């Protein structure tokens, strides 16, 4: 049979099904396959908020969106070209996010009477049969039946075990549709199930069955191909944000010569950093799963006090619990990196959904005057650089640092070019030297030109001094209740953080002219949507520019001058307006906010519409 091959520039695929259907694994495998081909990509895994919602229900839908292209990719896509719907609930939840004329690959078995009822379709209504999907290209496949047929000779497997391989059938079919090979997934299966021969062979068999189904069924006459993207030369791999962040911490440990200690309490979506770092004991990494958030940060403070690179990881609710100990770290003026992978709140909130709502907590969420530098990652790859930079600031300025990421960045993936160790900034470490003359009193709060005190390792001869959370007398470090001293120390600690602005890069414009009608200022995971929206508007002739902040406290020294060059300022955020309030306060600018608080990222399309409205 003759096959047509159609060349495409961009494709967005959404895999969706019950949380037990393996959609995350399917998406990850297709992502890895795509990355190996040198095609640029961005992903958005969308987990159910419930740990185990009832099978077939709307809250139980798990999704994985992948945007891949021969051009540069900045977002996982606004709408999908292809939706893989394993059941009726998956279709209902995601139907609004498919473009008109897009493809729907539906597992017929997931649209029986029971699944339709669980998805809240009216009695007797089946979207695959009632004409409601006529504006889409619907590909109906009985994935369950075909999977069982492929495994009919695996008599040692029960029906449930056979049905677990459904996702491999879908993956095999998608590989056929986009002209891919099965090699990398077969290698993955061998590594994962090498000691379980029956499970290994059954998964490989079903993967091949899905591929062969596309190849032998005359219904499908067209295959698609996306060419390799023009990326800078280098060695690439697909990487998720939390992985990149963990590697950045390890790199900082190696470059500084400081042993890395992570004290953490598991919490979604930060737990993967603990899991990842625990694999690298060979690099001197020590990980400690504490009994609670307070113990986690306290152990990291102790490690830092003892001369290690102290790290603690959490999400918003955990940040609240760590607040008092963070104040202790500020009082002690020792290095510490607090990683906050933000999620929807308040309280337990939306554990698996993304949000940027902890910025105010990072700025002000501690008792007293308690300033700390804040740095934010913009993309999964950026997490490596930001983690490394957070460690550099913490060590060289003797201060705890807050690193903000979020669930979208943490679980998203993109191609990452391996950095060269020689290209990383050095992280110089200088401990206070021992005193040969022990009669000479050590002065723990004597400061250098950066207002930084020395890092005194306990047990070093002559460096005995007081520690604790009570206010310290300047220079001596003795406990002090003197009002003038307290004001002086508060001002000094603030000045030390402000002075970090002298040692970070000036703010640059990501795109656009230095003056114009509108400046869009972003931070964190809004980067991709803002960049792609602004670039499109610039091509249409709009005088719009984009500045994205990595350093959120202190701001780069020239940010105020950049802002003055524009008639209007827009600040898109996945919160109710937090950075915009800080910018108004610091720069007295009438900045406008664009806020989305739905647990999902801002899209390029909605930003373009908002910007055009502002420029009317």
Structure summary:
The chain is of the alpha/beta class.
What's the total helix number? 20
Largest sheet: 7 strands, mixed
Mean pLDDT: 95
Topology, number of strands: 21
Oligomer: single chain
Distance between the first and last residues' Cα: 55 Å
Strand order of the largest sheet: 11-10-12-13-15-14-19
Strand content: 15-25%
Amount of helix: 25-40%
Structural class based on helices, strands and sheet pairing: alpha/beta
Shape: globular
Give the radius of gyration. Answer: 27 Å
What does this structure look like?
Helix 1 runs parallel beside helix 6 (166-177), helix 7 packs antiparallel against helix 8 and helix 9 (241-256) crosses helix 10 (271-277). The chain has 20 helices and 21 strands. It is an alpha/beta fold.
Strand-helix topology:
Elements: E1 4-8, E2 10-18, H1 23-36, E3 40-46, E4 61-69, E5 80-85, H2 88-94, E6 98-107, H3 113-118, E7 137-141, H4 143-150, H5 159-163, H6 166-177, H7 183-193, H8 197-216, E8 222-226, E9 236-240, H9 241-256, E10 260-264, H10 271-277, E11 286-289, H11 293-305, E12 309-314, H12 316-332, E13 336-342, H13 359-364, E14 374-376, H14 382-396, E15 400-406, H15 407-411, E16 413-417, H16 483-499, E17 516-523, H17 527-539, E18 544-549, E19 551-553, H18 559-564, E20 566-573, H19 579-587, E21 592-595, H20 604-614
Parallel strand pairs: 1-8, 2-5, 5-6, 6-7, 10-11, 10-12, 12-13, 13-15, 14-15, 17-18, 17-20, 20-21
Antiparallel strand pairs: 2-4, 3-4, 9-16, 14-19
């Amino acid at each position: 049979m003759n096959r047509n091959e159609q060349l495409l520039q961009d494709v967005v695929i959404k895999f969706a099904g019950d949380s037990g259907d393996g959609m995350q694994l399917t998406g990850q495998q297709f992502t890895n396959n795509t990355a190996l081909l040198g095609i640029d990509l961005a992903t958005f895994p969308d987990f159910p908020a419930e740990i185990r919602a009832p099978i077939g229900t709307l809250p139980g839908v798990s999704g994985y969106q992948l945007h891949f292209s021969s051009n540069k990719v900045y977002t996982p896509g606004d709408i999908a070209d292809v939706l893989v719907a394993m059941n009726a609930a998956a279709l209902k939840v995601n139907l609004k996010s498919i473009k008109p004329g897009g493809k729907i690959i539906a597992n017929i078995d997931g649209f029986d009477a029971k699944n339709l009822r669980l998805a809240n379709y009216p009695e007797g209504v089946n979207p695959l049969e009632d004409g409601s999907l006529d504006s889409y290209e619907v590909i109906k496949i009985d994935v369950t039946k075909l999977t069982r047929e492929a495994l009919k000779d695996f008599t040692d497997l029960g029906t449930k075990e056979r049905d677990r391989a459904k996702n491999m059938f879908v993956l095999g079919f998608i590989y056929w549709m986009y002209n891919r090979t099965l090699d990398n997934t077969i290698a993955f299966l061998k590594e994962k199930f090498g000691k379980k021969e029956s499970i290994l062979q059954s998964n490989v068999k079903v993967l091949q069955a899905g591929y062969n189904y596309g190849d032998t069924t005359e219904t499908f006459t067209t295959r698609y191909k996306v060419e390799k993207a023009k990326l800078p030369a280098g060695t690439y791999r697909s990487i998720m944000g939390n992985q990149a962040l963990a590697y950045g911490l390890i790199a900082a440990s190696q470059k500084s010569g400081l042993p890395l200690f992570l004290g953490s309490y598991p919490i979604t979506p930060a737990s993967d950093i603990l899991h990842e770092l625990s694999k690298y004991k060979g690099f001197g990494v020590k990980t400690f799963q504490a009994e609670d958030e307070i113990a986690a940060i306290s152990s990291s403070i102790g490690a830092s006090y003892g001369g290690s690179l102290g790290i603690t990881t959490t999400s918003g609710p955990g940040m609240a619990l760590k607040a008092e100990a963070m104040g202790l770290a500020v009082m002690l003026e020792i290095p510490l990196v607090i990683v906050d992978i933000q999620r929807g709140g308040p309280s337990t909130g939306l554990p698996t959904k993304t949000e940027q709502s902890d910025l105010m907590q990072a700025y002000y969420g501690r008792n007293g005057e308690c300033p700390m530098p804040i740095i934010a990652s913009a993309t999964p790859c950026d997490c490596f650089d930001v983690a490394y930079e957070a460690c550099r600031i913490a060590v060289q300025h003797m201060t705890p640092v807050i690193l903000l990421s979020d669930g979208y960045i943490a679980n998203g993936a993109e191609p990452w070019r391996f950095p060269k160790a020689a290209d990383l900034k050095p992280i110089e470490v200088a401990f206070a030297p021992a005193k040969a003359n022990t009669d000479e009193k050590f002065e723990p709060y004597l400061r250098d030109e950066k207002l930084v005190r020395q890092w005194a390792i306990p047990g070093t001869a002559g460096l005995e001094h007081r520690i604790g959370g009570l206010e310290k007398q300047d220079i001596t470090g003795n406990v002090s209740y003197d009002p003038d001293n307290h004001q002086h120390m508060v001002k000094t600690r603030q000045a030390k953080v402000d002075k970090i602005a002298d040692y970070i890069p000036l703010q640059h414009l990501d795109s656009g002219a230095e003056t114009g009608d509108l400046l869009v200022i972003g931070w964190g995971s809004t980067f991709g949507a803002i960049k792609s929206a602004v670039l499109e508007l610039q091509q249409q002739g709009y005088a719009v520019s984009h500045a994205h902040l990595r350093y959120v406290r202190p701001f780069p020294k020239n940010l105020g001058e950049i802002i003055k060059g524009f008639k209007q300022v827009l600040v898109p955020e996945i919160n109710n307006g937090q950075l915009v309030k800080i910018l108004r306060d610091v720069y007295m600018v009438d900045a406008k906010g664009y806020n989305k608080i739905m647990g999902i990222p801002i899209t390029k399309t909605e930003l373009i519409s908002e910007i055009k409205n502002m420029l009317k």
